[in-house]
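Example record

Each entry pairs one chain with its bound ligand, 5,10-Methenyltetrahydrofolate.
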Amino acid sequence: MTTVTHLISSTPTLARDIDGKAISAQVLDEVREEVLALAGQQIFPALAVLLVGDDPASHVYVRNKLLRAKEVGIRSLEYRLPDDASQAQVLEQIAQLNADASVNGILVQLPLPGHIDEAAVIHAIDPIKDVDGFHRENVGGLVQGMEVLTPCTPSGCMRLLKETCGDISGLHAVVIGRSNIVGKPMATLLLQAHCSVSVVHSRSVDAPALCRLADIVVAAVGRPHLIDASWLKPGAVVIDVGINRVTDESGSHLVGDVDYASARTVARAITPVPGGVGPMTIAYLLKNTLIAAKLQRAVKAREPDPDGCDSDIN
Ligand SMILES: Nc1nc(=O)c2c([nH]1)NC[C@@H]1CN(c3ccc(C(=O)N[C@@H](CCC(=O)O)C(=O)O)cc3)C=[N+]21
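Structure tokens for the complex follow.
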């Protein structure tokens, strides 16, 4: 008689990577196609990016946005103001871009220098050109389920989830972080996709325990490596929005809010950093520029013809 001994592998199955680079390339292809279709209607979408000051990280991001825009055939205009620009100067620049019918999208790179009131600047942007989706009119519309310009990072995360999980209806999603630019709109979009949504934040009692209840985890807190395997239910899908620059013995590099090496031993799928959410944000910014151009065309079509206004008087 022979005894068969099964070797039990001690290597756990690792999560698969959610390839934000590849999926963003798909989104950019969709955008490129639509740019061509709009060109046939004499519409040439344009994005204006305003950068105040000289934060080096902001320069890199803005350069990437402008490069991607060019690749898909969206015209981009870069405006710069010095670090000591007054709020009035920033508002004046926005007023000029609002009034320019050839500009479809306006993005003011955040953060702004400390002496400038960020909310005042965001709300000076014409909501129909607000490609970041940060204006209260767009935020309100989003919460009410209307078709409005929607923040780019949460839109990108939803696309990653769709490509990874298909229908997420009924799943429990935990969003870690409650910022206006990611956490809150992310929770709103997940709710719209029929998830049960919990928002975990710095005051949560036992955040890891809440997170362990999640089928989907979206981490957007800006704390390097905060979330490790001990926060995750086996098989959870993890979207890491964090982009933290850290310096260690191997030099300076980007890490997420999730401890990738640890989390992937428990999760089913996970976004890497870089190459996960970041490229999706840019792809959806360009998608929003197209949406803005189309919204503006629809508004224009409803306006009375300025040359025809005398015609029914005589
Ligand atoms: N009004 C405004 N809207 C924004 O959308 C906005 C902003 N301000 N301020 C700064 C943050 C940050 N952000 C990123 C976009 C893409 C990458 C990105 O493509 N990251 C690459 C790596 C880039 C690298 O290597 O440095 C990746 O994750 O693979 C990162 C960060 C948009 N932001």
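The pocket of 5,10-Methenyltetrahydrofolate is lined by residues 60-61, 64, 107-110, 132, 152, 243, 254, 273-275, 278-279, 281-282 (CB under 6 Å).
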